[in-house]
């Protein structure tokens, strides 16, 4: 398995967009259309935000993660953010998510950042158990509780 930039695999853009649309966008009910998600992933880079990484094995995309400059408007002082970590259900429990996160930290460090942030509504224990430091809990526009975590990129 290898981790690479989506930028290097344009044939995987729609597949990644579909995974993220189904897992995050539909659940958020924010009105974003699938075409908007495809457009977003068509414009990811390798050294400017947004950045998207893929876990690939034998040409198949097993999972993805993105790096955004900001993933929570009410906390724009925190930069950058790990976002949209997703592993396909039939590929879970193989450490793919951890490898995607490790590569994300490497990329962020190469870009000169000393910390990486993330937000989660329902997987706080997952990140706590993997060494992420709790920062704070905030409420979004829908009054939903969001936990913010950070990882030192040293």
Walk me through what this model shows.
The chain is α+β, with helices and mostly antiparallel strands and 154 residues long. It has a single domain, classed as Gcn5-related N-acetyltransferase (GNAT) (Aminopeptidase), CATH 3.40.630.30. Helix content is 29%, strand content 31%. It is built from four helices and seven strands. Strands 1-2-3-4 form a four-stranded antiparallel beta sheet, with helices on both faces. A hairpin with a 5-residue loop joins strand 6 and strand 7. Helix 1 packs across helix 2. The longest helix has 16 residues. The two termini are 25 Å apart. The model has no long low-confidence stretch (mean pLDDT 92). Pfam families: Acetyltransf_1. It comes from Virgibacillus subterraneus. InterPro entries: Acyl_CoA_acyltransferase, GNAT_dom, NAA80. This is Acetyltransferase (GNAT) family protein.
Major beta sheet, strand line-up: 1-2-3-4
Whole-number total of structural domains: 1
**Count of helical stretches:** 4
CATH architecture: 3-Layer(aba) Sandwich
Give the H and E element order.
EHHEEEHEHEE
Any idea of the CATH class? Answer: Alpha Beta
Low-confidence stretches: none
Give a short account of the largest sheet. Answer: 4 strands, antiparallel
CATH topology: Aminopeptidase
Strand content: 25-35%
Kindly list the characteristics that best describe this protein.
154 residues, alpha+beta, Aminopeptidase, four-stranded antiparallel β-sheet, three-stranded antiparallel β-sheet, 4 helices, 31% strand, GNAT_dom, Acetyltransferase (GNAT) family protein, NAA80
